[in-house]
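[Meeting: bench + compute handoff]

Bench side (C.D.) handed over the final construct sequence. Compute side (W.E.) agreed to return the predicted structure before the next meeting so the bench team could plan truncations. Sequence as handed over:
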Amino acid sequence: MPDRESLITKLEKGRAEFAYRCVKEVVDENSSNKELLKNYRAYSRKIPQMILSNGLGQTLAFVKSKAKNGNAYELLYSQMMDYLRSDSTARIKMPDNIELVEWVISLDSQNYRYVTEEILAFLNWVKRFAEGLIETEEESEE
């Protein structure tokens, strides 16, 4: 059992580190663009709920359709794709030569469920770091 616990700890640590780097990069590179940071924080909270309500494929199709010119949807879509291509995932790795939404809808049901859980776990860390690193107007007024 200690091996399983260490694998789970390693997985969570990898997700957390990858998510932190993603959010920190967005904050550092867009510190003067308050609208983008506000949207990034809001969407990082909204997308997991959309996945739970509509499924991963439909949510990714929606996010992809809204991703334009470096907006928050494009950043999050790109980060999810980078995460699934990274070594931070354990059981499945996304191929480099395919689009995220195209790859997800081509998966069998077992791998689809696994990728859904993996994306939700990753976005949970992104949401936490976004809430911690991006100050909202309400928080700045307190």
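W.E. noted at the follow-up: The mean pLDDT is 91. C.D. will use this when planning the next construct.
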